[in-house]
Amino acid sequence: MSDTVKLIIDGKEITASSEDTILLAAEKNGIEIPNLCYLKEMSPYGACGMCVVEAEGSPKLLRACSAKVAEGMVINTMGERALKARKIALELIMGDHKGDCIGPCKLNCPAHTDCQKYVKEISDGDYEGAVRTIKDVIPLPASIGRVCPHPCETACRRQFVEEPISIAYLKAFAADEILKSGKHIIPEKKASTGKTVAIIGGGPAGLSAAVKLAENGHSVSVYDKMPKMGGMLRYGIPEYRLPKKVLDAEIAEIEMLGVKMVNNITIGKDITLSEIREKYDAVLIANGAWKSSSIRCPGEDLEGVFGGIDFLRAVALGESPAIGKKTAIVGGGNTAMDACRTAVRLGAEEVSIIYRRTRDEMPAEDIEIEEAMEEGVNFRFLTNPAEIIGKDGKVCAVKLQVMKLGEPDEKGRRSPVPVEGEFITLELDSIIIAAGQKNDPAGFEDIATTKWGTISADEITYATSLLGVFAAGDTTNSGASIAIKAIAEANEAAKFIDAYLEGIEIPYKKAVISEIDPTEDMFTEYEKYPRIRMPQRAPEDRRNDFTEINLGLTPEEAKAEAKRCLSCGCHDYGHCKLIKYADSYCTDCKRLKGEYHEGFKETRLEVIARDQHKCILCGLCVRTCEEIAKKGILGLVGRGFDTVIRPEFRNTDIASICASCKKCAQVCPTGALRIL
């Protein structure tokens, strides 16, 4: 028999040793055949069923890890039958795979910030590393850490132990530490592409996109109608929540990247959109939502009626709106909280919130509501303006309709309904309408809009009806939302703008990942540690000025808080072969979901933690321990569905053997084994 044979794999003619398996021959020639239980140093096992291939003339699929090559073989690794078998094998494995690929904090962050990673870096005292991690996504970490309503914390699994990790404050802490050190963390730029991009709007969306596009080597100019960059972070968030010196320092770092800032430019007045399109290769519109929404109430045109955003912007510009001694704010969101607390600081003696539902339905953060109450704001729940009353053209009172919550709708939400004939009259000097905001269409009339008047942008590519013009953030589609969502959209838009400039198309595909459905009984093993509270100035002091109310965490507090993290996301996600193949071959990894193995977590190996929930019984760890390490410590226990892998401790020296070996963890394809 000849020592070598010739065969064809996926159309490529190769020469292989007659002793080679199809899988090994393919590997030697740079052809990947999916596998989960194969290691060339060990004998074939064939447990996973992933390496099946089609051989011309054979009615059966071959397992490439065990089938030997033969002269003249024609192998197709991506045939229809092989792909179908591979897909079913993966769906069966994934149907019993119980683990989080990505931490729920990262998944719930609209921008998918790697919260787990930077929290771990903070716990290790690596603040520079933490800021670099955050800046992969957010160019303004100290600012966003102060104002973000932290959807990451809503999903934090630590809540099943006691309370979520203080993720947002940790973000601000790390960024503050780096700013105080004088160190500038500026991303590296690729070589210049010669392409130019104009960004209209210098808020969180515009600035985020500017960074990403500049990193990719494009020349970026940001146009903004206001005197300084920052958008709503500067003109919609009060100083006591976000000191502008912090925002200035972070924007200065964006300028260091080479982004050109052009202020006091209004589109349609100082320059037209058409002129910008002629001058630049691509345009991103991220001009936000700067118009206060109307509540369509009689009397809204009276002197002393302010829009919430208009009011906050005026204060940020150093103006002193004439709100008088008694004012009321209509609305229940964070803008309403900002407005009422600003009114307190401007010297109003009686400040009220008017909200048509109860506190339970208020969209504002609990902490914002509590702080407003501490500062003396009155909350008038279940009331709604029926008429703003004026005298000599100026506000003097508001007539409030008393409301009650009606019957729950199909989603369980109870809408407010008027209590017939019941009204309250509240004497006022002014009223601030903070019931929403919308974009200003002036200057953008050539772009297709939605029925709500926002710019219509593709929800994947962020392209608008004009070639080369993209849009992201509050000005698009469903309108105003939180800053981190605007940043998320801007980062995605930048990716597609970059592709547009390079003349390529990026196909959209939703990544396949594994997630668990958590229950409290999964977290009973953890010791309870209370969440670190942010120290604050006393209400009686802070209500008198605009100095920041939060005093910040100490390094000791920040590290202690960060160490509460449960590290939910899989430590091996970036190298996990299982999820790599699932993402390639499956669309629904839980299609064949059935009864889960009971599963368990084990740390008796001392230096290695085993999570049976993630184990796919590929046998690699058992065979590595037996054939390579020559120890035989791990073994398959049980039969059929109940089979698990467990260690056998025959004497006290076994743990020390594991400590010096760790080979099983190195070959695990799923992250079921973790080196401690």
Domain tally: 5
The count of helical stretches stands at 22
Note the quaternary state here: single chain
**Arithmetic mean pLDDT:** 92
**Biggest beta sheet summary:** 5 strands, mixed
Alpha-carbon distance between the two ends:
50 Å
The CATH class name of the largest domain reads Alpha Beta
Described by the principal axes of the CA atoms, the overall outline is globular
The percent range for strand residues is: 15-25%
The name CATH uses for the topology of the largest domain is: FAD/NAD(P)-binding domain
Question: Outline of this structure?
Answer:
The chain is α/β, with parallel strands linked by helices and 676 residues long. The chain is 30% helix and 18% strand.
Could you please describe the fold and organization of this structure?
- With 676 residues, the protein is of the alpha/beta class.
- It has five domains: 4-92, Ubiquitin-like (UB roll) (Roll), CATH 3.10.20; 104-185 and 512-562, Fumarate Reductase Iron-sulfur Protein, Chain B, domain 2 (Orthogonal Bundle); 196-290 and 438-502, FAD/NAD(P)-binding domain (3-Layer(bba) Sandwich), CATH 3.50.50; 292-436, FAD/NAD(P)-binding domain; 597-675, Alpha-Beta Plaits (2-Layer Sandwich), CATH 3.30.70.
- It contains 22 helices and 25 strands.
- The strands form seven sheets. A five-stranded mixed beta sheet has the order 2-1-5-3-4, with helices on both faces. Strands 8-7-6-9-20 form a five-stranded parallel beta sheet, sandwiched between helices.
- Helix 4 (115-123) crosses helix 8 (167-181), helix 4 packs across helix 18 (555-562) and helix 13 packs across helix 14.
- The longest helix is centred in the last third of the chain and has 20 residues, at 483-502.
- The chain is globular and about 105 Å long.
- The protein starts with a strand and ends with a strand.
